[in-house]
Design goal:
The complex is a heterodimer. In chain A, helix 1 (8-21) packs parallel to helix 2 (40-48) and helix 7 (187-193) crosses helix 8. Chain A has twelve helices and 15 strands. In chain A, the strands form three sheets. In chain A, strands 3-2-4-5-7-6-12 form a seven-stranded mixed β-sheet. The radius of gyration of chain A is 21 Å and the shape is globular. Chain A has helices at 8-21, 40-48, 62-74, 85-100, 125-128, 143-157, 187-193, 217-249, 275-288, 306-312, 333-341, 364-375; strands at residues 2-7, 29-33, 54-58, 78-83, 106-111, 136-139, 166-171, 179-184, 257-260, 267-271, 293-298, 300-302, 318-323, 349-354, 384-385. Chain A folds into two domains: 2-249, Thiamin diphosphate (ThDP)-binding fold, Pyr/PP domains (Rossmann fold, 3-Layer(aba) Sandwich), CATH 3.40.50.970; 257-385, 3-Layer(aba) Sandwich (Rossmann fold). Chain B folds into five domains: 2-181, Pyruvate-ferredoxin Oxidoreductase, domain 3, CATH 3.40.920.10; 216-226 and 687-736, Alpha-Beta Plaits, CATH 3.30.70; 236-307 and 634-678, Alpha-helical ferredoxin (Fumarate Reductase Iron-sulfur Protein, Chain B, domain 2), CATH 1.10.1060; 318-410 and 559-614, FAD/NAD(P)-binding domain; 412-556, FAD/NAD(P)-binding domain, CATH 3.50.50.60. In chain B, a hairpin with a 5-residue loop joins strand 19 and strand 20. The chains are: A alpha/beta, B alpha/beta. Chains A and B meet through strand 8 and helix 9 of A and helix 1 and strand 2 of B.
């Protein structure tokens, strides 16, 4: 391992480049790149890399960036790109196309709220808006988590049991533009972890066929059923990929959920991204003061593992979800999913909170405010925004 | 854990400073975190950066609230709020030329350290084209306060790939921090204000004009730079080359000519015979081709309407000795200053070497006549056939109120070629003779010794006078020849031959057997002029023989100071001795033997101003603006276009003709017209109104006034410097407010 001080974007760029280089013995790597704050530095790192076998194309939009990824992936290359916010939304049509084509593309997302009015800072509203696309979604809470998850993502995406693209996200600025100490894996270990890609359905000159042709209603249904089945196989593949990761790199990457102190907890907090690291501090402090409190990091959001989540909260009767996103007219997107997970737990008081929108600071005093609010609640209500504003 | 807050301005290196400090601790095995708080106001806005250092992994993802150290990069950001929440044992590091106790009222009871990082950055030329960047100097200062070693600081810079002059800036600051614990009591933390109302997009005033007067952020503001371009700086005559070419771009031919006439009365002459150092210096030379300033100058002289001459207004009568370009330039400038001037010439005609030394096919007589007539029309009188001796000069300094001596280079260098010296002639004498009584050179083989313009001219004239062969012998190679490159090419096209690396030794034989024996040379180490020194080849291999009937010597000339008073120093800045007499000074090749018309013009003009000052004149010539830094020019987006060359009379029709060879640039039709060539001028150091600055200004507060001026709204200019940094021609500078 090379220990270095790098930004989240540099860390993500390093992992993507190493994964691309690892496919040099096969069909190489490729993709399209287009800049947008706060992910630009990722794609700059990718475009500046000199691959033994690979080629990245600077294109004129995110829509085209994903189109190039689709093309290179169909040609059998390991394909990846990065985007954020409105760029991701502009890319949307091809995001769906990539998933529907079952292409194991990996996209790093530096989460940024959607505008206008413009705001370049973090919330998860951009990638969560694509939650219904046939993509896996993994939310990271640190630089190391980001590097490890990107490598893990290729392994899962390319597994014949899955063959779906993966989004790996980092909170914009909070990770993307923050320099931290991280262990960057050397190329030979990445080579060992990511074997040469041999896509069964790749385009071949000696075996011409049509991709994305007309489908009948029943064929369409079967296509979706296959995607659903692939999504359902993700937990076991993720588990295996994590074990293999630990075997190669000597550390275990975070799994679908990371539950801490939930075994004896009355109250459990659930969050994703860097909010988790703040939760960890607050929870540790409160536990040392005698509170029975725990938390769950929601790492894998798609597929959403309902039963596993219900298990993760253990016997807790009070669950608060801290969404860094907002589904208009509904509430927190993660809260929604968790509510369906807990449909068989009428004994649980589930309250949604919406925090950190557009880069609002999620620091221990804010978590304390949320917990103070939650402690006094006897019944849940519509999601509550924090901090409370003077209007 | 150590926590540090850095106050800086967007885009000025605050985040990099945070990364540098983090790197220093990382290299000591610590966990670190460095990040910025990015604002919406972009460059120039107040921003903060933060550093955390710990022995354990850092998990905080929010700004530092209770820093142990505060670093302030910009004097405009020094305020009591910077220390809020700070530990009483903490330290505040300020970028300021003032001592710490100057901040007693701002930071009472605090530990304060100051360093003049801006001065250190400026002296190390750190920063963008527009603004100094102070972060590496502050790294040195902060490193000292943090207890890091200088080696830690240097390692951090190296880790981020920063070398000199950043290292020097950090080292300078590291040893020079001033620190003190200021008297007074730390103010208690002010009670938190009630949270302010958050705006709604439905508010009346949302989206209106910005309320923040960002002009208060600026420590520097853009201002027109007006720098001297490389061409004007290189012009020995002192012409505003860019100025006249840009007037051509405006199609203002009259203004173009007037611009040249400020410094030179010989645009038609220089536009034909100048070696054009301006073109060698032209910044475009490395991009595609230099701008063809010489042909443009000729174009202006030949096409523009000449202005009405001025008339004498003063009563002091002045004399100029010598009517070469230096003397006439001096007379012209003095006449423009209002003096009645009389020019004394030993020969029958005015013009000196312009007339006797430059053949008509290069410089037609009518061009010289026109320019001399223009000078004389300023009320300049002429006395021809008057050779001035030392005693006559003494008399003149009593008859006149001031005298300029511009007798040029009267001594011709020669060499002894042994027997047969009747066949040896000075090339300059030959050129002069060829005007009035041209010798018949039919069937003759002429050898010319030398490599300057006189040698090439003599060879070409020899061919025109019927010589069957004209061979130029030069000690070095063609690449080192001082003659104008185009002239050499034209000469070769006309049939002149050049023998490189050969120096004449002696003439042998007679009649048909007549031959010039030469010593072969090779190129050695460079001499004082920077050209390789010719080294003789010894032995029999070192000799070569060239059949010849006539030898023309073009070995250069030297000044002859015999008419000057005893004790005269050949120095441009000195008046001639003789305080009791009228002031007198020297000008041109006599004192500065450059040997070009342009240098003589410049020397004559400077002498005129010197004499004017000696006579108590109050006007002074305008002093040039600072010289441009060529590396700051950016030719991006400029199409590459080859230089427009002047048309040439075909070689076959100029073989025996003294008609002018060069025909100048096209006027109207065709692609390579003078106007188009002028448009290739990049106008280095002077605004052309291209508008890039207006487009690049992120605030939209730069506006054009007229074609070449822009104005800035100081209420909203935050001094980001983007306008100056992007200005392709360095016509904008960021000046301290």
């Amino acid at each position: 391992m090379t220990r270095a001080v790098v930004t989240g974007n540099q860390a993500a760029g390093h992992a993507l480049v190493a994964a691309g280089e690892a496919n040099r013995a096969a069909r190489g790597c490729g993709g399209g790149g287009y800049p947008i704050t706060p992910q630009t530095e990722i794609i700059e790192n990718v475009m500046a890399a000199r691959f033994s076998k690979g080629n990245f194309t600077a294109v004129e939009s995110e829509h085209s960036a994903m189109a190039v990824c689709i093309g290179t992936s169909l040609a059998g290359a390991r394909s990846f790109t990065a985007s954020s916010s409105n760029g991701l939304l502009y890319m949307t049509e091809n995001v769906f196309a990539a998933g529907l084509a079952r292409l194991p593309i990996v996209m790093a997302v530096a989460n940024r709220t959607v505008g206008p009015p413009w705001n370049i800072w973090a919330d998860h509203g951009d990638s969560l808006a694509l939650r219904d696309a046939p993509w896996l979604q993994l939310y990271c809470d640190s630089h190391q988590d980001l590097v490890d998850t990107i490598l893990l993502a290729f392994r899962v995406a390319e597994d014949p049991r899955v063959l779906l693209p993966v989004m790996v996200t980092e909170d914009g600025f909070l990770l993307s533009h923050t320099s931290m100490v991280v262990d960057l894996p050397p190329q030979d270990l990445v080579d060992a972890y990511l074997p040469p890609l041999d896509l069964a359905l790749r385009m071949r000159a000696d075996h011409p066929r049509t991709y994305g042709q007309i489908m009948s209603p029943r064929e369409t249904q079967r296509h979706r059923e296959e995607i659903q089945a692939a999504m359902e196989r993700v937990p076991e593949v993720l588990e295996e990929a994590g074990a293999e990761f630990a075997h190669v790199f000597g550390r275990r990457p975070r799994g679908a959920f990371e539950a801490e102190h939930t075994a004896d907890a009355d109250t459990v907090l659930i969050a994703a991204g860097t909010t988790v690291s703040t939760l960890r501090r607050v929870v540790e402090e409160r536990r040392s003061a005698g509170e029975k409190i725990g938390f769950v990091q929601l790492k894998l959001f798609r597929p959403f593992l309902r039963d596993e989540l219900a298990q993760a909260i253990g016997a807790a009767r009070r669950v608060a979800v801290l969404d860094r996103d907002h589904s208009s007219g509904s509430g927190g997107i993660m809260w929604n999913e968790i509510a369906t997970s807990l449909r068989e737990r009428p004994d649980v008081l589930l309250q949604g909170y919406i925090v950190g929108l557009g880069g609002g600071e999620v620091d221990p005093p804010l978590i304390d405010l949320v917990l103070d609010d939650f402690a006094g609640r006897e019944r849940s209500q519509a999601p509550i925004f924090f901090p409370r504003l003077v209007t | 854990m150590i926590e540090i807050t850095i106050y800086g301005r967007g885009g000025r290196g605050g985040v990099t400073l945070a990364k540098l400090i983090a790197a220093a601790y990382f290299l000591r095995g610590k966990y670190v975190q460095a990040f910025g708080r990015y604002g919406a106001e972009r460059a120039g806005a107040p921003v903060q950066a933060f550093v955390r250092v710990d022995d354990e992994e850092i998990t905080e993802h929010y700004p530092v609230r209770e820093p142990d150290y505060v670093i302030v990069l910009d004097a405009g950001l020094i305020a009591a709020e910077a220390a809020e929440g700070m530990d009483p044992g903490g330290f505040i590091v300020l970028n300021s030329p003032l001592p710490p106790d100057a901040f007693e009222s701002v930071f009472p009871g605090r530990n304060v350290a100051t360093t003049d990082a801006t001065a250190i950055a400026v002296s190390n030329r750190l920063g963008t084209k527009a603004l100094p960047i102070v972060n590496t100097a502050l790294l040195g200062a902060a490193g000292e306060i943090l207890g890091l070693s200088l080696a830690d600081v240097e390692a951090a810079l190296a880790h981020l790939g920063l070398g000199e002059p950043n290292l020097k800036a950090a080292r300078t600051a590291y040893g020079s921090v001033r620190q003190a614990r200021l008297p007074g009591i730390i103010a208690p933390v002010a009670p938190g204000r009630p949270p302010a109302r958050t705006a709604s997009i439905f508010d009346e005033d949302i989206g209106g004009p910005p309320k923040v007067h960002t002009g208060s952020w600026a420590s520097r503001l853009p201002a027109s730079a007006s720098l001297t371009p490389l061409c004007s700086d290189a012009c020995p005559a002192g012409n505003d080359v860019r100025g006249f070419v840009q007037a051509l771009v405006q199609r203002d031919y009259e203004a173009a000519l007037k611009t040249i006439l400020l410094t030179s009365p010989f645009p038609g002459t220089c536009g034909r015979v100048c070696p054009a150092p301006c073109m060698q210096a032209c910044a475009r030379g490395d991009y595609d081709d230099a701008v063809n300033n010489r042909e443009l100058e000729r174009y202006v002289a030949d096409r523009a309407p000449w202005p009405e001459p001025t008339r004498p207004t003063r009563r002091e009568r002045l004399a100029v000795i010598g009517s070469g370009p230096a003397g006439l330039s001096a007379a012209y400038q003095l006449a423009r200053l209002g003096y009645p001037v009389t020019v004394f010439e030993a020969g029958d005609e005015l013009g000196g070497l312009l007339r006797t030394g430059i053949p008509a096919y290069r410089l037609p007589r009518k061009v010289i006549d026109r320019e001399i007539a223009f000078i004389l029309a300023h009320g300049v009188e002429v006395r021809c056939g008057q050779r001035v001796t030392r005693s006559r000069l003494v008399e003149m300094r009593r008859e006149y109120d001031g005298v300029i001596v511009a007798t040029g280079l009267q001594e011709q260098r020669t060499m002894d070629l042994g027997a047969g010296d009747h066949r040896v002639l000075q090339a300059l004498d030959f050129l002069d003779l060829s005007r009035s009584r041209p010798p018949d050179l039919r069937e003759q083989r002429v050898v010319i010794a030398g490599g300057g313009n006189t040698a090439i001219d003599a060879a070409r004239v020899a061919l025109r006078l019927g010589a069957q062969d004209a061979l130029v012998l030069y000690r070095r190679t063609r690449a080192e020849m001082p003659a104008i490159a185009e002239e050499i090419e034209e000469a070769l096209a006309e049939g002149v031959r050049i023998e490189q690396l050969a120096a004449p030794l002696r003439l042998e034989g007679d009649g048909e057997e007549s031959a010039l024996i030469c010593r072969r040379m090779t190129l050695g180490k460079p001499d004082k002029s920077g050209r390789p020194r010719p080294v003789p080849v010894d032995g029999d291999d070192g000799l070569a023989e060239f059949r010849c009937d006539t030898v023309l010597l073009a070995l250069g000339e030297a000044p002859d100071g015999r008419l000057l008073p005893a004790g005269a120093v050949l120095d441009e800045e000195e008046l001639l001795p003789g305080a009791e007499d009228a002031p007198a000074c020297t000008a041109g090749d006599l004192v500065t033997p450059e040997g070009t018309v342009a240098a003589a013009i410049g020397g004559g003009r400077r002498a005129a101003w010197r004499l004017h000052a000696a006579l108590g004149g109050v006007e002074t010539p305008s002093s040039p603006a600072p010289l441009i830094d060529a590396s700051a020019l950016t030719f991006r987006d400029v199409p590459r276009v080859a230089m427009a060359k002047g048309r040439l009379r075909p070689a076959r029709s100029r073989a025996a003709s003294f008609l002018e060879v060069r025909q100048g640039l096209r006027d109207r039709r065709g692609r390579q017209t003078a106007y188009e060539e002028a448009q290739r001028c990049f106008s280095c150091g002077a605004c052309t109104g291209c508008g890039d600055c207006v487009v690049y200004c992120p605030e939209g507060i730069l506006t054009h006034v007229g074609d070449t001026e822009c104005t800035v709204d100081e209420d909203y200019c935050k001094g980001c410097g983007l306008c100056a940094a992007q200005c392709p021609r360095s016509a904008l500078a960021m000046l301290p407010t």
